[in-house]
Amino acid sequence: MKREVINIIKIGGKTIDHEEKLDRFLNSFSRVPGQKILIHGGGILANQIGEKMGVVTKFHEGRRITNAETLELVTMVYGGLINKKIVAKLQSQNVNAIGLSGADANLLTAEKRVVKTIDYGFAGDIQKVNNDLLQNLLSQNLTPVICPITHDGKGQLLNTNGDTIAMTIACALQSQFEVNLWLCFDKKGVLLDIKDEESIIPQLNPSTYAELLSKSLIHEGMKPKLENAFRALESGVSKIRIGSADDIDLAIANEKTGTLICA
Amino acid sequence: MKREVINIIKIGGKTIDHEEKLDRFLNSFSRVPGQKILIHGGGILANQIGEKMGVVTKFHEGRRITNAETLELVTMVYGGLINKKIVAKLQSQNVNAIGLSGADANLLTAEKRVVKTIDYGFAGDIQKVNNDLLQNLLSQNLTPVICPITHDGKGQLLNTNGDTIAMTIACALQSQFEVNLWLCFDKKGVLLDIKDEESIIPQLNPSTYAELLSKSLIHEGMKPKLENAFRALESGVSKIRIGSADDIDLAIANEKTGTLICA
């Protein structure tokens, strides 16, 4: 039996930071046929607003360290400003978008990350995806627009990486859907040489990835994204691509852009 | 045929501004039986964060004048920080809350207020409530938690008074439900003497209200709230009360608190 296709698309900061880029992406996204879910990150906007407010954010290996002040900041910026702006823009393009955090309707339950060497503060590791809710919303032709905020079910909001949310939702839905997962960022794909924008690796499987890793040819900042991609692959997600958010509709139509993650 | 009861409760800034007060209210709210909707305002939190960010907000007759900067501020604070905090807290108390702005799933379409003498900026006057959506969510035992942000359907978010949202939703649902509308604030009811907290007017009908108005016995700040209450009355909303957010579950049980708005 042919299962229904769902496109799960994650966009990052660089797409969100520029109004024009975001508009172009949302325009493209609105043309993606069938069921779809958008997950967005935050980008420099949270940092800029944080600076104005005097909130200083620390990072460790590209991951934000979330103290109480930073959690309030990202809840405001991701859950409020960015999420509602995206939803309103999509509504104007006939996409019946509904903005959600992980707390809303108990979409994503997470656990505060256990402190090992680094205390990530209010960082949440996802424990459970509310599959029934997602399927229910999708069956009503709603398009979930998900911000990277989760909760622990005990009243605490948590900050969770957007790529990880996209991956986890892809894994959760893959038993019911043929899932296409798109992890978009500001490059056209995983680059062999970070200084050469055209050095896109067309496909990566676990062994070629391991090989590149062993030769230190994978940029540090790419590792979390690739780890998420390979975890989705292991869970049976049909198609996973890492690439640019530009012209996502064309990418979905011909599927020959970016880096394909395959077995 | 006996229709199902729904309690629509609006809380204002004073309840939100104090963590302890908010917790007590949400605790109380979680015990309200049956279907329910919570609408929240913003309070001084938006002003405080605005101050930190250097955003100056102007008011006219208690209503915020929303320029572009202020709109971003309230979208962040109302739609993000306050809304998600409330949702997470309710989730921890077994209320399956879902936070929504008017843009989400096209819940509330509004029109940018036409400039007469005062330019309210990005202030939205509600045109349409998405009744089907609300009924659908309620039928799934979800509790909508609505922030005072609407949209115009053309991509523009707008700022709308929370009391007005509560009233409009009450009116929209009154044909399907027996609606109890609670407009809560920091007083125990409409006061005859603003300096005497115990001078609660037990009930007001259009003619007693007109009489008090003519004698200038209605405080300026109370007028918008009362106008909303009387508009709900005209639309056939079953019960409307103006009173304190404290112990709302007990208030709903005995219905003898605050000011009853009646025909």
SSE pattern of chain A: EHHEHEEHEEEHEEEHEEHHEHE
The CATH architecture assignment of the domain at 5-187 in chain A turns out to be 3-Layer(aba) Sandwich
CATH superfamily of the domain at 5-187 in chain A: Acetylglutamate kinase-like
The major sheet of chain A is characterized as: 8 strands, mixed
In total, the number of strands of chain A is 14
Residues in helices of chain A, as a percent range: 25-40%
Approximate shape of chain A: globular
CATH fold-level name of the domain at 5-187 in chain A: Carbamate kinase
Helix/strand-derived class of chain A?
alpha/beta
List the helices and strands and how they pair.
The structure is a homodimer of 263-residue chains.
Chain A lengths: L4 E7 L1 H5 L1 H13 L3 E6 L3 H10 L4 E3 L2 E3 L2 H24 L5 E4 L7 E5 L11 E6 L1 H9 L3 E4 L2 E3 L5 E3 L2 H12 L4 E8 L17 E2 L1 H9 L8 H12 L4 E6 L3 H7 L4 E3 L2
Parallel strand pairs in A: 1-2, 1-11, 2-8, 5-8, 11-13, 12-14
Antiparallel strand pairs in A: 3-4, 6-7, 9-10, 13-14
